[in-house]
Design goal:
With about 1000 residues, the protein is mainly beta. Helix content is about 10%, strand content about 35%. It contains 16 helices and 64 strands. Strands 23, 24, 25, 26, 27, 28, 29, 30 and 31 form a nine-stranded antiparallel sheet that branches. The two termini are about 20 Å apart. The relative contact order is 0.09.
């Protein structure tokens, strides 16, 4: 049944639960590894997690209720409390079974002189860790991992005892021998990091199998202690003490269904590991890659345990009720073909045993040697000799980042979980070029570029031989389904993340050391290729069907999530508007901004790179350009109509359905109306406004996100585009609208671009909607104006009303103004607003508060609206407020807008939320990114600083963060001023700073995994804990 862990993730609410994980799991550990999703300016909120166990529901606990105590217990607790610490930590990147996350948990001092703290392994984690601890008197100091057990749920942290100046340090003595059935115990742990709490209980079992925690980390090959307690989120790593103040167990898990049952790890192996570390010796750990379970005698009899051996075992161990039974033997491991599932363990090296403690001791002392096992198999004695392997050798302590993804050798934990051989290259962060469809984790790379990659070293050698921007074949499998071989064509990105970077665990410093493994090979020169388009046989409109020669498929890869856009990859179709120049028009729902890589697929045969040359600020389209000399195919420039399509007219719909297949049908125009794409309430992002949209009477319209409306002779009357809308609050899915955009609205811009002139558009800084004559009359519009509208536009009896004015522009048009004329021309259609594109000022007559007012309104240049810079600092993705923010907010608080944040970063840990604004650094105003970077570069690494922050809804607050340049160096992406019309890598540069974060900036090379950015907008952008 479900179990949960007791570590507690960063949260705002007081949630009674054992382990706060992002997604429900069969079982969870008891640190604060809770799930966090951020909406708008809110702080992380915890969600329950659950994990499955074969016997009962288990959860990891943290919140501990206070209980009335006797004098003896009060004296004991006073001593214990001084040893307990609250641990605040981040696992900085996904590694092995652990996702990147921020959390809180508990630990306790076990060596006051050397500064050692005992806690859980799922707190220390398998990968990079940084954190600090807070003592009972609220003194704080940094902690560094010294040891994390490969299997059992304990780890040891180190702190500097000299940093604690205002209290005497005490240490708890570990006494695993004092854990007995019926013993009264107390669990001393932190409650959400805010206070210390005490929970009482009584030990009821000493022989429970380790609880299973779903697909994450799980302990095994040890028995757990069961007690009647009810710990909850935040208590992972809490000491379990007896009345004499000895630590008899380590808090780890508990029931997830609310029952007052908890599970503790015995301290036999933690005590041994502690002694080794205190003596400066390595902690030897042996394995035969076999999982054992404690099973009662009645079940052992069914498996073939003989009467003679049962009698002998009961005589030798009169208090025991079961034996160890082989549950899983890993293929190709030491026990493979020697032990079988269901074997009942009788002897090891001639010693009868019933417990894991003796088995662990023999294996740990026998690394590199042989061990003799006697098992009962179907009633027969079977003796085997097995080589004892080194458990540390199959526990990864390094990983490689390349092309946006991260990789390490498959761990024993993962191999045991899925029952596979402990070998292969595991994708611990499936992002960048290695973002595979389907699951986000669990992939094993079999080959790259048709070269086998059996281990990490070979994988690195293969990747070093792959040039930048090269497409290679990658074969891979998922651990859940090794029967299915997946094959993908991968575009290897070695320009946004130039280096192959190796990270190696350093147990002396507690950090992971990074080194570069060489620069990328240059991109091969592109080669011209030929292809032909498919033909649509049997269509009734052959001339219209020829439009297929004007369509190309466009794929977009975004290295950083900006502007609130929810994806890092998009795929769609574009219309070729000039085949000679290689100009293609595509929806901004596919290409939202120009910090990206763009590829054009011609006839699904030729792939060429393209660059962004224009982004329309309002009408939802972008124009890209590819090198036409590389394409030898009969591409045809689309013939765009100059006449506006009419409501009720017949037209031919040509589009690409969800399977990317072309479809064609005769239909009619049902409506041409001014529409407003709803704004995303949680995170502002680009949306089309102030446009007339075409709708048609065919079911294909809803199925196709890209296409055209055209006449029978092939003249394009309208583009059929996808418009990104709001995010559905019920299912966290993005709403997309499919609408037509009449071609006459495109012609002025397209004409300039075809002539080699970059359009310098200007716009009104407002969002409008339409109003009826009845509403306008109520607002004070005279009959004379109404008659003029009816006369000059008999098809549209409407006017435009100002719905929203962009922030910072309240000296012109105002909300609720009805626009009557622009430069003396009546404005009843969106096309009447097009005057704004080419005029610095407009003469506008509006109806305002029942009065007609003539005002001169300055238009706004659009070249300042697109994002041209972003800074990643302490894991926060910062950028100037983009256009959608200005549209939705009444006042900009600063020019430093938090667009997203990296999981496991200081920004995540300390609660910097997307859509917040940073106004000051250490009380110094930071009105823009330049001043912000100047101030934060004055801050030494690993020191605290203050940020003044304002939420989107004008609520001020102060955040304190600790700078961490080791794991989260400051990175900038800047658009090159001399190439501002170009997107892609050649139009941007990436800069970093010296290692201390305080030096001169330069072209940077540190890997950056843009796909792990949390924008606070839904479950697809958060990690599971």
């Amino acid at each position: 049944m479900p179990s949960t862990r007791s570590s507690k993730r960063k949260q705002e609410n007081d949630v009674s639960q054992t382990a706060k994980r992002r997604k429900p799991e069969p079982a969870v550990l008891k640190d604060d590894q809770d799930e966090m999703s951020i909406d708008g300016d809110q702080s992380p909120k915890a969600l329950n997690g659950a994990e499955s166990d074969s016997e009962e529901e288990v959860q990891i606990s943290g919140k501990i209720a206070a209980v009335a105590e006797t004098r003896e217990w009060q004296a004991t607790i006073e001593r214990v409390v001084s040893t307990a610490v609250s641990i605040h930590f981040c696992q900085t990147c996904s590694f092995d079974t652990d996702p990147a996350m921020s959390s809180e948990a508990t630990g306790f001092v076990v060596d006051a002189e050397k500064g050692y703290i005992m806690t859980n392994r799922h707190v220390v984690g398998a990968g990079p860790f940084w954190g600090y601890c807070i003592f009972d008197n609220h003194e704080e100091c940094d902690v560094f991992p010294v040891y994390r057990d490969p299997v059992h749920d304990f780890g040891i942290l180190r702190f500097d005892p000299k940093a604690i100046k205002y209290m005497k340090l005490n240490a708890l003595t570990l006494r695993p021998d004092l854990a007995k059935v019926g013993s009264e115990i107390r669990v001393v742990g932190n409650d959400a990091g805010e206070k210390l709490s005490i929970l009482s209980g009584v030990i009821s079992r000493l022989d429970r199998n380790a609880p299973e925690y779903g697909e994450g980390y799980s302990d095994f090959n040890t028995q757990y202690i069961q007690a009647s307690a009810a710990a909850s989120g935040g208590s992972s790593g809490s000491p379990v003490v007896d009345i004499d103040g000895y630590a008899v167990a380590l808090q780890a898990g508990g029931r997830a269904d609310g029952a007052a049952t908890d599970y503790f790890l015995p301290l036999d192996r933690p005590l041994r590991a502690l002694k080794c570390i205190q003596e400066g010796k390595p902690v030897a750990r042996g394995t035969i890659q076999t999982q054992w379970l404690i099973k009662p005698f009645d079940e052992c009899r069914r498996l073939g345990l003989s009467t003679e051996w049962e009698a002998a075992m009961r005589k030798e161990f009169p208090k025991e009720t079961g034996l160890l039974v082989a549950e899983l033997i890993l293929p190709e491991g030491p026990g493979h073909n020697k032990i079988e599932e269901g074997d009942v363990l009788i002897k090891v090296n001639g010693n009868l045993l019933t417990k894991f403690t003796l088995l662990d001791a023999i294996l740990d002392d026998g690394v590199g040697q042989k061990v003799q096992l006697l098992v009962q198999r179907g009633g027969n004695d079977v003796e085997v000799e097995i080589d004892v392997g080194n458990l540390h050798d199959i526990t990864p302590d390094r990983f490689v980042s390349v092309a946006g993804g991260s990789f390490h050798d498959l761990s024993y934990q993962q191999a045991r979980l899925y029952g596979v051989a402990c070998k292969g290259v595991y994708v611990c962060e499936a992002s960048g070029s290695f973002r595979f469809e389907g699951a986000e984790a669990g992939w094993i790379i079999d080959s790259v570029d048709n070269k086998p990659t059996p281990n990490l070293d070979t994988f690195v050698e293969v990747m070093q031989s792959v040039p930048d921007r090269t497409r290679v074949i990658v074969s891979y499998k998922h651990l859940r389904d090794l029967h299915t071989q997946h094959t993908s064509v991968v575009l290897v990105d070695r320009h946004w993340s130039k280096k192959i970077r190796l990270a190696v665990r350093n147990d002396e410093t507690g950090l992971w050391d990074f080194s570069d493994l060489g620069s990328p090979l240059p991109t091969p020169a592109p080669v011209a290729r030929s292809a032909n388009f498919i033909s649509l046989e049997g269509t009734q409109y052959p001339q219209a069907a020829e439009i297929i020669r004007s369509f190309v498929r466009v794929t977009v890869s975004l290295p950083v999530k900006l502007d609130g856009f929810p994806r890092t990859r998009k795929n769609g179709h574009g219309l070729v508007i000039d085949a000679e120049k290689g100009l293609v028009i595509v929806s901004r729902a596919t290409l939202p901004y120009d910090l990206c890589d763009v590829s054009v697929h011609v006839a699904e045969s030729i792939i060429v790179d393209a660059k962004v040359i224009f982004l329309h600020p309002l009408q939802n389209y972008a124009i890209i350009k590819y090198d036409a000399s590389l394409v030898k195919a009969p591409i045809k420039s689309a013939r765009l109509g100059t006449e506006t399509i009419k409501q009720g007219s017949s037209t031919i719909f040509f589009g690409f359905n969800q399977n990317m297949r072309p479809v064609i049908a005769k239909t009619s125009v049902t409506d041409i109306t001014t529409v407003g794409i709803p704004a995303s309430a949680t995170t502002p992002r680009y949306r089309a406004i102030n446009l007339d949209a075409v709708t048609v009477d065919t079911s294909l319209a809803a199925q196709c996100g890209t296409g055209v409306l055209l006449t029978e002779d092939g003249t394009v009357q309208a583009l059929w585009l996808t418009y990104l809308g709001e995010r559905n609050s019920h299912n966290n899915k993005d709403v997309e609208y499919h609408l037509g955009l009449a071609t006459p609205m495109l012609l002025p811009v397209l004409g300039q671009i075809q002539e080699g002139v970059m359009p310098q558009l200007r716009i009104l800084n407002v969002e409008t909607s339409t109003t009826t004559m009845s509403q306008a009359r109520i607002m004070g519009l005279s009959d004379t104006w109404i008659q003029r509208v009816e006369t000059e536009d008999p098809e549209r009896h409407q006017l435009f009303i100002v719905r929203k004015v962009d922030s910072g522009h309240h000296d012109g048009l105002k909300e609720a103004d009805i626009i009557l004329t622009i430069n003396d021309k009546l404005a009843t259609r969106v096309s009447d607003l097009d005057l704004m594109y080419s005029h610095a000022s407009l003469d506008v007559v509006v109806l305002r508060k029942r009065e007609e007012v003539r005002i001169a309104i300055a238009t706004v240049p659009t070249n300042e609206l697109e994002t041209d810079r972003c800074v990643i600092f302490c894991g926060a993705v910062l950028q100037p407020p983009h256009h959608a923010v200005r549209q939705q907010i009444s006042k900009l608080h600063s020019g430093v807008y938090i667009s997203g944040r990296l999981r496991g970063s200081p920004a995540y840990m300390y609660g910097l939320a997307p859509t917040n604004f940073i106004t000051h650094v250490n009380a110094v105003p930071t009105p823009d990114l330049t001043s912000f970077v100047t101030e934060v570069n004055k801050i030494p690494d690993n020191t605290y600083f203050r940020l003044k922050v304002k939420t989107f809804d004008n609520v001020p607050w102060v955040a304190t963060l600790k700078k961490n340049e080791h794991y989260f160096p400051t990175i900038e992406f800047e658009k090159r001023k001399d190439m501002s019309s170009m997107g892609g890598e050649e139009g941007w540069r990436r800069v970093t700073y010296d290692e201390d974060g305080m030096g001169k900036k330069h072209e940077g090379a540190e890997p950056f995994e843009g796909e792990v950015v949390d924008q606070g907008i839904g479950v697809e952008d958060v990690e599971r804990a």
